[in-house]
Amino acid sequence: MVDWTDRHYRFFARLLTNNALLYTEMIVADAILRGDKKNILGFSTQEKPLALQIGGADISKLVEAAKIVEDFGYNEINLNVGCPSARVHEGSFGACLMLNPDIVGDCIAAMCKALSIPVTVKCRIGVDDQIPAVALRNLVKSIKKSGVNGIWIHARKAILKGLSPKDNRKIPNLDYDIVYEIKKENPDLFIGLNGGLEDMSQALKILPSVDGVMIGRAAYKNSAMLTTVDEYFSNPLTGSSPIKTRVDKDFWRKISASMTDYAARHLHSGGKLQQITRHMIGLFHGFPNSRRCRHILTVEAGASTATHHIIETAFNLMIESL
């Protein structure tokens, strides 16, 4: 998610779950080729397993950029065929590529041939006036024969004319059934579902019908949700009862110490405290003293005198209430 899943958030998220596959923001191929590669692609090895989501439609540029991504040590590269923003549309990539499944197939084939890491696609079920049952199957057919390793399907259409990216995340109706059908028709291909998932309990009800689930904004706005992911990996039968967020104090003390140390190193290198704390606000959702904790990490963290210890202060307030 652009502006959300940067390296600071991913470091934080990995402390909450050891097993979830984390994704970067979408990075355009041209940015990788022309920009500061270390700044754009650098990450902590602690973030792994980690996939990079790439945007573009020029085969040669995608391949060249993807090779660089692989050399940096990412575990997977994911082609974005779902972003509905006007800027992306003007660049002729993102969701509008669903109108040209053969181009997507050619891009995937070229990257699969050039790389040794998995190549996946993130798409919608269709765009504008397309019929999902037709459009999605055409895309799947094209990229499957191109050697794609998996497809993540956001179970909504993308409306390119008249809706903002924000509206595109909630106004088009969800259609999980078409995703389930695609999985039944392609039992040998990884099919993951995205869109409208609010917690792991809901996700577990869906998992029997697909191979994986992708949770974005809900996990960002309520980060403690991520502490429930590993329970599923250790006990897949957990889905029969609600999964509870971790509340043991020792666990949160370790998170506090890790993030405080991480912030200290970031500040020492010239970074700003709020580049980190802005990603942590959702952690306190549902906990006592959440409003005060959020105030500490937003207003107080923005003060010129604020230090990395501000993170410790917020955590201590939460821990004391457990």
TrEMBL record:
Its EC number is 1.3.1.-. Gene3D superfamilies: 1.20.120.1460, Aldolase class I (3.20.20.70). Its cofactor is FMN. Catalyzes the synthesis of 5,6-dihydrouridine (D), a modified base found in the D-loop of most tRNAs, via the reduction of the C5-C6 double bond in target uridines. FMN binds at Q53, K122, H154, N194, G195, G196, G216, R217. InterPro entries: Aldolase_TIM, DUS-like_FMN-bd, DUS_fam, DusA, tRNA_hU_synthase_CS. The lineage of its organism: Bacteria, Pseudomonadati, Pseudomonadota, Alphaproteobacteria, Hyphomicrobiales. GO terms for molecular function: flavin adenine dinucleotide binding; tRNA binding; tRNA dihydrouridine synthase activity. PROSITE patterns: UPF0034. This is tRNA-dihydrouridine synthase. It comes from Liberibacter asiaticus (strain psy62).
